[in-house]
Amino acid sequence: MNRDAASHVSGGVLRYQLSTINCQLAVNNAVLDTAVYAETPEGILIELRPAGIVARFYAFSIDFAIRIGIFFLASFVSAGLGMLRLAFLFILMFVLEWFYPVLFELSRWGATPGKQALGLKVVMDNGLPITPAASLTRNLLRFADFLPLMYGFAFVSMLMRKDFKRLGDIAAATLVVHQPLPVPKPAQQDIEPLAPARTLAPQDQAAIIALAARASRLTPERLDELAAIAAPVAGAEGKSGPEVTRRVLAVAQWLLGKR
Amino acid sequence: MRVDAFAIKLRRRGNMEAADLGVRLCQSVARQVYACYLTAALPVIAISLACFELATWLPTLLMWWLKPWLDRTVLFVLSRAAFAQRTTVADLLRAQRHVWWSQLSSTMTIRRLSPWRSFTQPVFQLEGLAAGLRRRRLSQIRAGTTGTGLLITNAYSIIELSLVVALVSLVFWFAPTGMEPDLSALFMNDEETQVELAIAIAYAIVIAGLEPFYVASGFGLYLNRRAELEAWDIEQEFRRAFAR
Predict the structure, then answer these.
(1) CA B239 to CA B244: how far, in whole Å?
(2) Is there a contact between A179 and A150 (Cβ–Cβ < 8 Å)?
(3) Who contacts A229 (Cβ-Cβ below 8 Å, separation ≥6)?
């Protein structure tokens, strides 16, 4: 599998396990989510999280502002060119309109500055990095998305499709995706680690570690409530309260490798 | 709140992705949403457009003003859909006392002007708290997320405007050569009712189509904020793993 494609899902064991859960659920097709799944030739499912209308609207706005800025700067600087100035500005306008996105999409960031600011990236819809042909196609077809005026078709298409593609994306088989959020790191705490009272599947371990990572941002009551559900791992089935919470968090420390 | 009845995959999402989730939810129950929403919206639109005779700007103003009231119907359907409950027009009519006729004055005045209205609307409509508690609850929900609520409203306002312009432009695309309405008359205060009528109708069409997605985006953001505050995703995993 391509290394770049792998980077959408990688990011530590935890991330891998969580996306495995996602994949299983996707196959069951029981719950609603924005994620779409691409399968590699090796039979591995890659989770892609398409970006919708609000994020893409702002990415476009930022890029538009940058393009306008470059154009004004150029028209200011080119004041001394005389007869050639108009020709220069028209060529610049053409280049900015059609090749500004292509240049950035084919760079190693895979996204224009506007998309980078929003944490977005353009990839092929099978998870591979975008190809030059696809980048050109999706950007030349912005013309179709612009119709009938002011990107009317693009808006309608993004609202009606599950993967939020605009017409250019459909033609080029590309997808604008959210880049994965950083996984919160569980704080190392001064708790005596406690071995779990029963064996835990990888995703159960991940859930307990996730609780430890977010414990500080939950209200104490809510934390106790959650820990009570997981009480069996601390050998305190059916009980609840701060003591149970302390024991569940101690199990999390044990799972993190503290002995 | 029963997390295990929740029909949406709970996972960590950024704020913008939460808005996308709302759009996805709206798509998945589009038939129910539009059946209920249009039940409320079509009479409003018809009455508004009928006011064109009184003043040419009145239909647009009326429709703009009544949007938060229409939003309540959309949110009613979406909030049930989040728990995999189907909603028919009959369900809506049964619940109309709460959905349509409660909180009427604040919906139409102070909350009309709220720049993050779709994000905070669920607190008002769904949580049913008393005024004092509600204020505390709002500040808790809004902390660090109001900005995205504002961005959602702003984005949809501009999209709405773009779509109106796009629709009105069709009049010019399809008008026979030499018969195009004169746009300059709009700005000169002349009698140019054709274009004004076209704008009012285009606005009505855009509201009928776009408003549910705006409400849904705000609702998605609200759900994500609550899931984050209360760690719903962890609860769901725990229930799956330990409640057997």
Answers:
(1) 8
(2) no
(3) B235, B238, B239, B242, B243
Average pLDDT of span A107-134: 93
Locus of tokens 């790191």: A185
CA distance A108 to chain B (A): 23
Q: Tell me how far apart the alpha carbons of residues B160 and A78 are, in angstroms, rounded to a whole number.
A: 37
CA distance A211 to A203: 12
Contacts of A229 in chain B (CB under 8 A): 235, 238-239, 242-243
Interface check for B106 against chain A (CB to CB < 8 A): the answer is no
Closest by Cα among B75, B160, B173 to A150: B160
Signed CA dihedral, B48, B49, B53, B59: sign only: positive
Give me A245's structure tokens: 């919470």
Instruction: Flag whether pLDDT at B39 surpasses 60.
Output: yes
- The Cα B38–Cα B74 span in angstroms is 10
Q: How far is CA A28 from the centre of its chain?
A: 22
At residue A125, the 3 state secondary structure works out as coil
ipTM, interface predicted TM-score of the complex: 0.91
State the sign of the Cα–Cα–Cα–Cα dihedral A83, A89, A90, A91: positive
- Most B CBs within 10 A among A33, A37, A54, A176, hence the mutation to make, goes to A54
Residues A176-227: tens digit of each pLDDT: 999 988 877 776 677 788 888 888 888 888 889 888 888 888 888 899 989 9
Q: Which is more confident, A66 or B176? A: A66
> How many Å apart are CA B107 and CA B121, to the nearest integer?
9
Q: What is the spatial distance between Cα A70 and Cα B48, in angstroms, rounded to a whole number?
A: 44
Place of tokens 């759900």: B223
Rounded Cα distance between B77 and B212, Å, is 10
Taken in order B208, B214, B220, B223, the sign of the CA dihedral is negative
- Looking at residue B142, its amino acid is R
Block residue for tokens 């549910």:
B212
Q: Residue A46: which region, alpha, beta or left (left: phi > 0; alpha: psi -120 to 50)?
A: beta
Query: pLDDT tens-digit profile of A27-86?
Result: 444 588 999 998 888 888 889 999 999 999 999 999 999 999 999 999 988 888 888 888
Structure tokens, B53: 């005779």
User: Three-state DSSP class for A142?
Assistant: helix
